[in-house]
Amino acid sequence: MSPTEPVFACVYAPSGFGKTVDVGYAFPNAVYYAKKGATKSIVSVCGYEPAVLPHTTLDEVTKQMPLIAKSGKYDAIVVDEFDFLAEDTMSSLEKKFTGFKLFGALRQSVLNFRNTARECGLHVVLTALERGPKLRDDGTKVRGGPALTGDLPEKVPAMCDLVLRGSRDPLRKPWPGIYRVDVNSADWISKDRDNSTPDPAPMNLGEILRFHYPISRHKSVPQQEAIVEQIATTLLSGTPQDDPKIVTESYKALLSGGMLPTFARWTVRDAWDRALLRRAKAVREANFFS
To answer: Cβ–Cβ contacts within 10 Å for residue 250, how many?
Structure first.
């Protein structure tokens, strides 16, 4: 059964790990709040120009979200580099507050953003840089998570349905990116309310979410979803050892059929990752202790 509410998700990783590109693949019909130049990788890798609004402050984004939803132009809101948006918000609030009142005002801005995001009726996705685990002065451990100030590294993930940490597996070709979602980790924050993401998972937020949520495709390739399902079905009819051959043949067939290389790569990527996710689901469901 699919959730009736849109997803509220957060992905975090070090710079350069591919989180913006992955979100670009997942949400081609979203509006992106991003700093200048931050979505260039979506243009060069995914092959389309996303709708972008400038980073301002959390309060401004919160005001705009209901208007974006009402416009009917987009099915998702992506806040790229949410940690930088929080920093810009704090800089703005410093003109009015100091000390504990400053952090209290920032926390309230985050809470207002959360509440509005939950009610706007669109998918909302945050990306952020990674802040590693650390020890407090008293020796207790603080788990790693999004690179936010104060208690926000814990507060922000708490408001999400899905929290994924980007990592890399150098043996995974041709895309080394993976997501970790070890909800029992003492070192890293992660979360999966839908309880369907394997650990590790391919870095493919769109395919992870399609287990439960309606995630739209780019209008330039209206047949993409059907092709992805067809290739995934072919992959699942064979063994993992057959994957490279099937993937290569599928990619060449799409190119010979006139599909642009960027969209052909996107299509095959989703198909392969869909097959990997379904295999992981089958293994998990077959084992009581998994």
So the answer is: 22
Strands (E), 177-279: 177-180, 191-192, 201-202
Peptide bond into 174 cis (omega under 30): yes
Amino acid at 266: W
pTM of the complete model: 0.94
What is the Cα–Cα distance from 189 to 163, expressed in whole angstroms?
Answer: 8
State which H helix or E strand residue 256 sits in: helix 243-256
Q: Looking at the domain assignment, is residue 43 inside a domain?
A: yes
Domain, as residue range, for 169: 8-209
User: What is the number of domains present in the chain?
Assistant: 2
Q: What is residue 131's three-state secondary structure?
A: strand
Do 153 and 238 lie in one domain? The reply is: no
Tens of pLDDT, residue by residue over 46-70, are 999 999 999 899 999 999 999 999 9
- State whether 40 and 160 are in the same domain: yes
